[in-house]
Amino acid sequence: MGFKTIEWRKDGIRLLDQRRLPHHLSYLLCRNASSVAAAISGMAVRGAPAIGVTAAMGIALGAKRIKSAEPALFFRGVERICEQMSRTRPTAVNLFWAVNRMRKILDQGGTLGIEEIKRRLEEEALRIYEEDIEVNRRIGKYGKALIRKGDGVLTHCNAGALATAGYGTALGILRAAQEDGKWFRVFADETRPLLQGARLTSWELLQEKIPVTVITDSMAAWLMKRGEISLVLVGADRIARNGDTANKIGTYNLAVLAKWHGVPFYVAAPTSTIDLNLASGFEIPIEERDVKEVTHFQGRPVSPKGAKALNPAFDVTPQLLIKAIITEKGILRKPFVRGLKRIKAG
Ligand code: MRU
User: Fold this and answer.
1) Exposure winner among 43, 47, 243, 335, fewest CB in 10 A?
2) Which of 18, 19, 248, 273 to mutate to test the pocket of ligand 1 (most atoms within 8 A of CB)?
3) pLDDT digits (tens, 9 = 90+) for 302-330
4) Which residue's CA is minimally distant from atom 15 of ligand 1?
5) What pLDDT, in 10s, does the model give residues 124-174?
6) What separation in Å is there between the alpha carbon of 268 and the centre of ligand 1?
7) Would the CB of 169 count as within 6 Å of ligand 1?
8) Which ligand 1 atom is at minimum distance from the Cα of 168?
């Protein structure tokens, strides 16, 4: 892979600025926790696992920058940073999962001394980063069996190396299938309004020499009707206890279409995306973003002044429409409730 989405450096955290892709491959150096939080909410970095990894590094970086030698002040300062990271984006549970892992380091307590806690926070953030890449490779290993020679794979948004520490979840499966020498085609939904498919997935797949065809979101039904789609493969931002899955807005449309056309619909996600605290998708908080993302395109209005707009960033696909969930611990089939509990525990 010729690029790094997230990188821990001596002087800060370097993020590939995804707002500028595919035309500019440029990086953003965040030197403090506030700029990390701004990069997450402004979507310079995006994708559930990548958000989690970046937030963990943001906490480690913020802790490093605290000058106070007074333990109570230090711990309060780091806790404030944890809260700041938690406010950036509400849907992807990987964010809260990563913040909690960092809080557990803080819980190891004051007897260790501030410098040691800082060192452990950095170590934990780097561990979360490394683990994510390893987990994605394992998802790829399990998931590649679902891809057959000649398949047409439809994906939505970007669930690739750009959305993770590296390798990707849904796109990791495609990488693994390609590494096995399988030939297949990928259709990338453009993914309105921010075009993660048209801009990011197509760019990432082309880096890997995986053939990709960009389609508008409204073309999916017709392609399925024409028999060009063998399977749908997407990532996830949060999976409830029963298997209901939040992912980029428009994913639910695809799942309904897939059911009608008899096309299997798969979700690929690490176990850090599973939220056993929520009984069903109804409880998943859905991020509402600025409606200008809908009424404007590249800064210019496309709707008349006075037109209202909506901009929920995610939707929830009911588990009934999902054929299987591919995790780093194996492929889960229905009933998901049992499998999700088991793999989350073990
Ligand atoms: O708003 P985004 O771009 O952060 O949304 C990303 C997605 O919906 C991805 O499909 C999901 O996070 C999985 S990434 C491996």
Assistant:
1) 335
2) 248
3) 999 999 999 999 999 999 999 999 999 99
4) 159
5) 999 999 999 999 999 999 999 999 999 999 999 999 999 999 999 999 999
6) 11
7) yes
8) 15
Residues 68, 77: contact at Cβ < 8 Å? yes
Residues 16, 218, 239, 231, Cα dihedral to 10°: -100
Task: Report d(CA 146, CA 179) in Å as an integer.
Answer: 14
Q: Tell me whether residue 237 is one of the annotated catalytic residues.
A: yes
What are the residues whose beta carbons fall under 8 Å from the beta carbon of 190, sequence distance 6 or more? Answer: 197, 198, 214, 215, 216, 217
The crossing angle, in degrees rounded to 10, of helices 48-65 and 71-86 is 160
Distance, in Å, from the CA atom of 321 to the CA atom of 245, rounded to the nearest integer, reads: 10
Which pLDDT does position 161 carry in this prediction? 98
Ligand 1 pocket, 322 CB below 6 A?
no
- 98 CA → ligand 1 middle, Å: 16
Q: How crowded is residue 171: how many other Cβ atoms within 10 Å of its Cβ?
A: 31
pLDDT, one tens digit per residue, over 62-82 is 999 999 999 999 999 999 999
CA of 237 to the centre of ligand 1 (A): 6
CB of 273 closer than 6 angstroms to any ligand 1 atom: no
Contact 177, 145 (CB under 8 A): no
Task: Order the strands of the 274-275 sheet from edge to edge.
Answer: 274-275, 238-240, 245-248, 314-317
